[in-house]
Write a structure and sequence with these properties.
The protein has 127 residues and is α+β, with helices and mostly antiparallel strands. It has one domain (1-127): Nucleic acid-binding proteins (OB fold (Dihydrolipoamide Acetyltransferase, E2P)). Helix content is 24%, strand content 38%. The protein is built from one helix and six strands, in the order αββββββ. It has one helix at 7-36; strands at 52-64, 72-78, 83-89, 102-112, 115-119, 122-126. The protein has a five-stranded mixed β-barrel with strand order 1-2-3-5-4. The protein starts with 6 loop residues before the first helix and ends with a strand.
Length: 127
Amino acid sequence: MPDTTGPASHRSRLRRSLSRWADSEDQHARDLRKTHQADGETTVAGAPDRERVRLRGTVKTVTLRPRGGVPALEAELDDGSGVLLVVWLGRRRIAGVGPGRAMYVEGRIGSAGGHRVMFNPRYELIP
C-alpha cells in the first residue's frame, strides 16, 4: 500500500487543489464575460484611455480609502476581460454599491499607481 502521508502526497494534493482553484477562477471570468459582454459593448480590456466609455461589470470589492485627506470610495469593477478601479471622491458610501452588484459606469479611464482608474463616473445599478 503506498504511503499517503509523506511530503510528496501533500504536494500532490496541493497541486490538485490549486488546479481546481485556477479552473474555477477561469470559469468565473468566462461567466462574467458571457454576462457582461453584449454585442457592440466595450470591454474593460478593450476600453481606450482618455476617451468617454460606458462599461458594464460586477463589483468585486468596495473600499473606503482617503485620498489627499478627502474620503474616497473605491470599487473594483470586473467584466471578465479585466478589472477597472472606480473611485468616487468625497463619498463614504453609495447605497446599492457593494460586492456582487452588477452596474454600468460611464466616464474616462486614466492611470494611477499602475492601475486603470475611472474617477467620479456616472453609474447605473443593474437589478
